[in-house]
Amino acid sequence: MNSTSIYILVALHPIITLTNMPNTAMEATELLKEIQKHDSQQAFRSLYDMYYDRFFRIAFYYLQRDEWAQEVILDVFTTLWNHRKSQLIPDDFNKYSYILIRNAALNYLEKEQRREASPLENMPEISSSNLSPEEQMMNEELFNIYENSLNELPERCRTIFIKVREEKQSYASVAEELNISPKTVDAQLQKAVTRLKEKINNYFRNRR
């Protein structure tokens, strides 16, 4: 499998599909072993299908741009394949993949900030070099809370939140696509936001 094949996988994958994460990282570990030992393209494709949504959501969390997030994902999957023989297989691929994508996204962001003469509009000013270990841990914990809370929402509520907040679709376009009224879109979005805020507020209360 070459970088062009991986690029096609990324380009054709629907952004933010509503599949859940695997219950454990054990399946990912077995796939990584299969990739490493047998150069299995089938196992690599299974790993890709399993983790694309998580990778995209992590990258988008930091970059806030679809095209940048996809470039980061392409780079990471290409690196995983090219270094499959020397890659150390982590005990917890979920935790490892979060750190992997986060660092790749932050490096990409730093590169874009250096390239531009002035900071880009709406781009988060965050750097991997100025985060303390505690801040990095908090970022990871917050993202996991966000992702888990999102997956716990009722399906329609989750779908509407993703389309409006992550895919930046308008209320009208979401209402038309789902054959519901804009008022229903707004009500479901507010429901999702309220639940997510509750989870995040609980996190900060428990840290006191």
Automatic annotation (TrEMBL):
Start and end residues of each RNA polymerase sigma-70 region domain: 47-115
Keywords for this protein: Sigma factor, Transcription, Transcription regulation
Gene Ontology molecular function: DNA binding; sigma factor activity
Signal peptide segment: none
GO biological process: DNA-templated transcription initiation
InterPro entries: RNA_pol_sigma-70-like, RNA_pol_sigma-70_dom, RNA_pol_sigma70_bacteroid, RNA_pol_sigma70_r2, RNA_pol_sigma70_r4_t2, RNA_pol_sigma_r2, RNA_pol_sigma_r3/r4-like, WH-like_DNA-bd_sf
Record keyword Transcription present: yes
Domain RNA polymerase sigma factor 70 region 4 type: 146-196
One Pfam match: Sigma70_r2
Record family assignment: Belongs to the sigma-70 factor family. ECF subfamily.
Protein name as annotated: RNA polymerase sigma-70 factor, expansion family 1
Organism the protein comes from: Phocaeicola dorei CL02T12C06
